[in-house]
UniProtKB/TrEMBL annotation:
Similarity comment: Belongs to the hemerythrin family.
Limits of the Hemerythrin-like domain: 16-122
Alphabetical UniProt keywords: Iron, Metal-binding
Protein name: Hemerythrin domain-containing protein
Provenance organism: Pelomonas dachongensis
InterPro entries from the UniProt entry: Haemerythrin_Fe_BS, Hemerythrin-like, Hemerythrin-like_sf, Hemerythrin_metal-bd
One Pfam entry name: Hemerythrin
Length: 159
């Protein structure tokens, strides 16, 4: 059973981010496959966690270069997801309780498309407005990004 299918709806037309998102889906599915097969899912989970940490760090670097507020809700959501992922790993390692991993699989599959559609799409839009090139790390116009309100895409965000 596929945990999360990659569809065109997840494409944001930013090649670097789209590739990273496809990798996230692949890691999530590999983790789900291990759970379904009844084998030790921790190696796949470690790979998913490492990928997610790097993925979020990349996005947060882009946010900083494009003028997002340092404590914006996008980065806060990343921190919350990573905290939950690390806590599930702690339960598995210290308490030998794997149930949080099973729950997290489902939760991540539901969370990710919404996050990409709102928060990551807002990041891509801001990058475009500011002329940010993820390959060089250069932002043509940070002032433009700040002027358009480099928010996270959530209606509750103050930007």
């Amino acid at each position: 059973m596929t945990t999360l299918a990659w569809t065109d709806a997840l494409t944001l037309n930013q090649p670097t981010l789209d590739h990273t998102h496809q990798e996230f889906v692949e890691h999530l599915n590999a983790f789900g496959d291990a759970l379904d097969a009844g084998i030790d899912a921790l190696p796949a989970y470690h790979a998913l966690l490492a990928h997610t940490e790097a993925h979020f760090a990349m996005e947060e670097d882009w946010m900083a270069r494009c003028g997002f507020e340092p404590q914006n809700c996008h980065a806060s959501q990343h921190a919350m997801v990573l905290n939950v992922m690390r806590e599930a790993l702690r339960y598995a390692n210290e308490l030998n309780d794997r149930e949080p991993l099973n729950i997290l699989r489902t939760e991540l599959a539901g969370w990710f498309p919404q996050h990409a559609e709102m928060m990551d799409a807002a990041l891509v839009w801001t990058m475009q407005q500011a002329g940010f090139d993820p390959t060089t790390g250069e932002c043509r116009d940070v002032a433009t990004a700040e002027a358009v309100g480099a928010g996270c895409g959530a209606s509750s965000c103050g930007h």
